[in-house]
Amino acid sequence: MMYIVFIMSVLYVVGFIGFSSKPSPVYGGMSLVVSGGLGCGIIMSSGGSFLGLVVFLVYLGGMMVVFGYTIAMATEEYPETWGSNVVILSAFLVGLLMEISMVMWLLSGEHELMGFYFGGLGGLVVLGEGGFEYVREDYSGGASLYSYGFWFLAMAGWMLFVSIFIAIEVTRKRY
Amino acid sequence: MPYIYMNIMLAFVISLIGTLMYRSHLMSSLLCLEGMMLSLFTLNALLSLNMNFTLSTTVPLILLVFAACEAAVGLALLIMISNTYGLDYVQNLNLLQC
């Protein structure tokens, strides 16, 4: 149970290999949704419940839904999956082999490369939620967007506004 | 360096390679771009939370806003390609021949 976050991050990488080996976008979108859910789990294990919720609501529930119906609009009759084409299957297996070899190299002990120590038990031992028990860190980060980060908010709002106009202008037919 | 950060950075590199290598669909490259944004969000959130940089938990939210804008513009371009050519195959984009 101690290694559950590590297993989740390995499955996260396997999901990334799944859509990066370029099957038909229908299956790629499904793999991205699975990776998004696992990423939410990884973030929540470090105490970021607000940011995990943001991943599910905004990223998966907003952006992936838009990608989903755009894929449904521009898709082909026989979508190719990981098992139907040898190119996709071999890309997936090469990525999987690389990930498994990296995991085995990490778990084989501690290595050092130019001052960085890989493979120790530093990342897996979960330190207690010490110190900030009365300040929820990620909620206060979201709230400080309106106080300290007001300029961030203004620029992000302006960019969203301008990107609507960009989308309208791009999709207007000009003959 | 902890294991989890290495896995997430590896996921970023994998989707970067996926973005740069086209197969038949343009939509697959846009999905790999979204994967890059997701891995950057996860890495930012984990670093801000584990190092207790409370104020920089704003950064993943801002990153997500910019990723949404970028996805909107990318999808608008894909829609125009799909309207002109019927499908979003990359081999249809052959007007520029040099």
From TrEMBL, chain A:
<keyword id="KW-1278">Translocase</keyword>
<feature type="transmembrane region" description="Helical">
    <location>
        <begin position="86"/>
        <end position="107"/>
    </location>
</feature>
<feature type="transmembrane region" description="Helical">
    <location>
        <begin position="114"/>
        <end position="136"/>
    </location>
</feature>
<keyword id="KW-0249">Electron transport</keyword>
<keyword id="KW-1133">Transmembrane helix</keyword>
<dbReference type="GO" id="GO:0031966">
    <property type="term" value="C:mitochondrial membrane"/>
</dbReference>
<feature type="transmembrane region" description="Helical">
    <location>
        <begin position="25"/>
        <end position="43"/>
    </location>
</feature>
<keyword id="KW-0679">Respiratory chain</keyword>
<keyword id="KW-0813">Transport</keyword>
<dbReference type="InterPro" id="IPR001457">
    <property type="entry name" value="NADH_UbQ/plastoQ_OxRdtase_su6"/>
</dbReference>
<keyword id="KW-0496">Mitochondrion</keyword>
<keyword id="KW-0520">NAD</keyword>
<comment type="similarity">
    <text>Belongs to the complex I subunit 6 family.</text>
</comment>
<feature type="transmembrane region" description="Helical">
    <location>
        <begin position="50"/>
        <end position="74"/>
    </location>
</feature>
<dbReference type="Pfam" id="PF00499">
    <property type="entry name" value="Oxidored_q3"/>
</dbReference>
<keyword id="KW-0812">Transmembrane</keyword>
<feature type="transmembrane region" description="Helical">
    <location>
        <begin position="148"/>
        <end position="168"/>
    </location>
</feature>
<protein>
    <recommendedName>
        <fullName>NADH-ubiquinone oxidoreductase chain 6</fullName>
        <ecNumber>7.1.1.2</ecNumber>
    </recommendedName>
</protein>
<keyword id="KW-0472">Membrane</keyword>
<dbReference type="GO" id="GO:0008137">
    <property type="term" value="F:NADH dehydrogenase (ubiquinone) activity"/>
</dbReference>
<dbReference type="InterPro" id="IPR050269">
    <property type="entry name" value="ComplexI_Subunit6"/>
</dbReference>
<dbReference type="InterPro" id="IPR042106">
    <property type="entry name" value="Nuo/plastoQ_OxRdtase_6_NuoJ"/>
</dbReference>
TrEMBL record, chain B:
<keyword id="KW-0679">Respiratory chain</keyword>
<keyword id="KW-0496">Mitochondrion</keyword>
<comment type="subunit">
    <text>Core subunit of respiratory chain NADH dehydrogenase (Complex I) which is composed of 45 different subunits.</text>
</comment>
<feature type="transmembrane region" description="Helical">
    <location>
        <begin position="6"/>
        <end position="23"/>
    </location>
</feature>
<dbReference type="Pfam" id="PF00420">
    <property type="entry name" value="Oxidored_q2"/>
</dbReference>
<dbReference type="InterPro" id="IPR039428">
    <property type="entry name" value="NUOK/Mnh_C1-like"/>
</dbReference>
<keyword id="KW-1133">Transmembrane helix</keyword>
<keyword id="KW-0472">Membrane</keyword>
<protein>
    <recommendedName>
        <fullName>NADH-ubiquinone oxidoreductase chain 4L</fullName>
        <ecNumber>7.1.1.2</ecNumber>
    </recommendedName>
</protein>
<keyword id="KW-0830">Ubiquinone</keyword>
<dbReference type="GO" id="GO:0005743">
    <property type="term" value="C:mitochondrial inner membrane"/>
</dbReference>
<dbReference type="GO" id="GO:0008137">
    <property type="term" value="F:NADH dehydrogenase (ubiquinone) activity"/>
</dbReference>
<keyword id="KW-0812">Transmembrane</keyword>
<comment type="function">
    <text>Core subunit of the mitochondrial membrane respiratory chain NADH dehydrogenase (Complex I) which catalyzes electron transfer from NADH through the respiratory chain, using ubiquinone as an electron acceptor. Part of the enzyme membrane arm which is embedded in the lipid bilayer and involved in proton translocation.</text>
</comment>
<keyword id="KW-0813">Transport</keyword>
<dbReference type="GO" id="GO:0042773">
    <property type="term" value="P:ATP synthesis coupled electron transport"/>
</dbReference>
<feature type="transmembrane region" description="Helical">
    <location>
        <begin position="61"/>
        <end position="81"/>
    </location>
</feature>
<keyword id="KW-0999">Mitochondrion inner membrane</keyword>
<dbReference type="InterPro" id="IPR001133">
    <property type="entry name" value="NADH_UbQ_OxRdtase_chain4L/K"/>
</dbReference>
<keyword id="KW-0249">Electron transport</keyword>
<dbReference type="GO" id="GO:0016651">
    <property type="term" value="F:oxidoreductase activity, acting on NAD(P)H"/>
</dbReference>
<keyword id="KW-1278">Translocase</keyword>
